Amino acid sequence: MNGIDHVAQLRSRYEHVVAGAMHVESERGTDWVVLQKTPFIRVELGPGGEEIAEELRAAGIDATLREDEVGVLWEKLALLAPVALTTSALGGPIGDVRGDPWWRARLGGARAEVVAVASAEGVVIDEDALRSLHAKVPVATQSSMQKDVAAGREPELAAIAGPILRVGALHGVELPVTRELVSLVEQRVDAVR
Fold it and tell me: 67, 125, 144, 173 — which has fewest CB within 10 A?
């Protein structure tokens, strides 16, 4: 699940919940087999994830433990949201976003805004490192939200953009690019329906 709100919801129902972030592009095929489309998979787990991390490492997956659960969630959101919003609004992979000056500016603007919101929440995100990560994402990468929009499925717009908009408003952070991208994604969703 993407975003940051789901952890509290899960804890209201389950006794043991470990916050984490998985960095990979994958999708479920028509035969329900999961296809990993990126050459990497990395998992970060918050407190309580020691046993899970050991099992993941034994399976050959890069798994790290972090003491800062909130940081894990906001860093994943900061990596994901700008990519998901721009690729979904454009209807193309990240290479198309980076290759067009107008869309590249939206990617940068959304990145700066989510970093500002995370900072207002006390989470320090290295924007230069994030920019570098966004530059290294393989050109053909499509976000899961983009795939959902294209397939006519309900996108995770509320889970991905919702916390940024809500927490930004709480702290008085201006979010013009994020709002613009949300509107463009909503227009694309309406056009597909």
Answer: 67
Give the tens place of pLDDT for each residue, 57-108.
999 999 999 999 999 999 999 999 999 999 999 999 999 999 999 999 999 9
DSSP category for residue 155: P
The structure tokens listed for 107 are 């990617």
Residue 166: which residues within 8 A CB-CB, separation 6 or more? Answer: none
Q: What is the DSSP letter of 6?
A: H
- Taking residue 176's Cβ as centre, other Cβ atoms within 10 Å add up to 9
d(CA 121, CA 171): 8
